[in-house]
Design a protein that fits this description.
By secondary structure, the protein is mainly beta. Helix content is 1%, strand content 42%. The protein is globular and about 65 Å long. It comes from Silvimonas terrae.
């Protein structure tokens, strides 16, 4: 999994700084790190570079637009961090403030060598300003997941694409032409990407590049619409109440359907150790084990497509702008959404955000009971939303992709 690190403040001495200074490069022979990039995020900055085996990296930072190795200790929020690995996410930054970063490296006991040029970024709260990227493919994108600095997007015709920054995407071959609707990743189980889709399709990959079609024929041929995991097993759900479970992503068990309705979305609440699923006709269900389900009382009859939890609040979204909010997952209250477009995906990052048809994007604060529109910079349907790298990434029809941070 991607390691997220808080700032580590070092009240350095002149001797320590000198050991990391570019002026000591003669003892290292290690050039400045290549491929050095810094991306802004929500209260954070994402640092990436071409990491080499056997090389130790130093990251310098501060709240300034004019950072150097020599002046780093005199800057506000001065930071000097040893032993970083790419990607490295620097958190606890102030949105709206300018930060700069640079890096150098050393091998063995040698002192650090030449530094990269400094790069400045301004962290910005996510969900308000969106940047629409070039179409990632001609295919409609339905689902996404993230691991160790790599985004994976899946969609129509078995399409799959990977990205390290959410803006530049590389098409991959999944060995299937079936539509893929959702994906997940966890190191706690099979340590692979798992994508599910039409006609019971399940494909796996260790890296998002090489894919294997799993032999699930005879288990279920129902469309699989969503997948989640709790660190012990995967739960895939789909049409006609289909529920399938696996402890290794390769061997799947078809569970007794808890409903005859289509199930469109599922999430795992790590706080209450419970799966929550949503679906056709206002379906809301919960399960602590993934195969024994309880239907939750709900007066809403609109189809629900996605559910998210955060800040001890639950939010489900669906057809015709439907938003339901709950503080206990038992009583669900309809919210005003200011749109009649279908809302296909909701997530919780620094607040609740939902996206849907015709490029609709809504901010729901941290409570999920007050929603306002933002401009996602697209009129395409947005079908999938995530908050990884402290950034919102929305994907949709025709390869639409738009970032907010």
């Amino acid at each position: 999994m991607n390691k997220l690190f808080n700032w580590v403040a070092i009240a350095g001495t002149c001797a320590l700084l000198a050991a990391c200074n570019a002026g000591d490069s003669s003892s290292s022979g290690q050039p400045a790190p290549s491929g050095f990039k810094v991306l802004p995020a929500d209260g954070a900055a994402i640092v990436l570079w071409d990491q080499q085996l056997g090389v130790n990296y130093w990251l310098f930072g501060g709240q300034t637009s004019a950072l150097t190795v020599a002046n780093v200790l005199s800057q506000p929020e001065s930071k000097l961090i040893n032993g970083v690995t790419s990607p490295y996410v620097v958190t606890s930054l102030t949105n709206g403030s300018v930060y700069s970063f640079l890096m150098n490296a050393n091998t063995g006991s040698s002192k650090a060598g030449p530094a990269t040029a400094a790069i400045s970024v301004v962290p910005v709260a996510s969900g308000y300003t969106w940047t629409n990227g070039s179409a990632m493919s001609a295919a409609n994108i339905y689902g996404q997941t993230f691991n160790a600095g790599t985004y994976l997007a899946v969609g129509a015709g078995g399409s799959a694409l990977t990205s390290t920054d959410g803006t530049t995407w590389v098409p991959q071959s999944t060995t299937t032409t079936q539509d893929l609707y959702a994906a997940t990743y966890t190191t706690a189980l099979a340590d692979v990407y798992v994508a599910v889709g039409a006609n019971g399709t399940i494909v796996t990959s260790p890296d998002g590049v090489t894919w294997t079609l799993q032999p699930t024929s005879g288990v279920s041929t129902a469309n699989l619409r969503a997948i989640a995991q709790n660190g012990s097993y995967y739960v895939a759900v789909g049409d006609n109440g289909t529920v399938m479970t696996s402890t290794n992503a390769y061997d799947w068990t078809l569970q007794t359907p808890p409903t005859t309705k289509n199930i469109y979305g599922i999430t795992w609440d790590a706080t209450n150790l419970t799966f929550y699923a949503v679906g056709q006709g206002g379906l809301l269900m919960s399960s602590t084990d993934g195969w024994q389900w309880t239907t939750l009382t709900n007066s809403n009859t609109a189809d629900l497509y996605s559910i998210a939890t955060g800040n001890s609040v639950y939010v489900a979204v669906g057809a015709n702008g439907t938003i339901l909010q709950s503080t206990d997952a038992a009583t669900w209250t309809p919210q005003t959404s200011s749109t009649t477009e279908n809302l296909y995906s909701v997530t919780y990052g620094s607040q609740f955000v939902a996206v849907g048809g015709a490029g609709v994007a809504l901010n729901g604060t941290t409570t999920g009971n007050s929603w306002t529109a933002s401009n996602a910079q697209t009129s395409s349907d947005l079908r999938s939303l995530s908050f990884d790298y402290y950034r919102l990434l929305a994907l949709g029809t025709g390869g639409t992709n738009t970032l907010s941070y």
